[in-house]
Amino acid sequence: MNLLHNQGPIQQTITAYGEKSITINETVYFQSLLILPGAAPVPWVVTDFDKLKRDDFNPVFAEKPDLLLIGSGMQHRFLPPRLLAEIASEKTGVEYMSTPAACRTFNLLLSEGRRVALALFMEGPA
């Protein structure tokens, strides 16, 4: 599904998403990603959403965003309460939702000038 026309290279705008790919500023990615404020997307080396741990988010905490959005794949999945508490202890707000909802929310918050990070979990190989 196409979302927005490319807004330029400074903002990492998600321009399309699908079950096995994410398009950011016309570049297509086929793996889980971390999108940090003011930086190019980087691969996020996670293989099992249900086994996420605090250390998987260390690059996010180093950037100190106002909010971390977590896209759990095509279906909304819940994070364990312990992990949510560990993330909250870093003074970073967190919201988790399906990847399509996370993409839309990220673009909206980015357009408002918010300092937001996005962790997108992609399910399985492309």
How would you describe this protein?
The longest helix has 13 residues, at 99-111. 21% of the residues lie in helices and 24% in strands. The model is unreliable at 5-9 (pLDDT under 50). It is globular and about 35 Å long. The chain has 126 residues and is of the alpha/beta class. A 5-stranded mixed sheet has the order 5-4-8-6-7, with helices on both faces. The chain has a 3-stranded antiparallel sheet with strand order 1-2-3, covered by helices on one side. The two termini are 17 Å apart.
Map the helices and strands.
Layout: E1 14-17, E2 22-24, E3 27-29, E4 33-35, E5 42-43, H1 58-63, E6 67-71, H2 81-88, E7 93-97, H3 99-111, E8 116-120
Parallel strand pairs: 6-7, 6-8
Antiparallel strand pairs: 1-2, 2-3, 4-5, 4-8
Essential attributes:
126 residues; 5-stranded mixed β-sheet; alpha/beta; 3-stranded antiparallel β-sheet
For the largest sheet, list the strands in their spatial order.
Answer: 5-4-8-6-7
The structure class reads alpha/beta
Shape: globular
* Parts with pLDDT < 50 across at least 5 consecutive residues: 5-9
Helix content: 10-25%
The sequence of SSEs as H and E is EEEEEHEHEHE
Helical segment count: 3
Beta-strand content estimate = 15-25%
What is the terminal separation in angstroms? 17 Å
The total count of strands amounts to 8
Sheet having the most strands: 5 strands, mixed
Mean pLDDT: 88
Radius of gyration: 13 Å
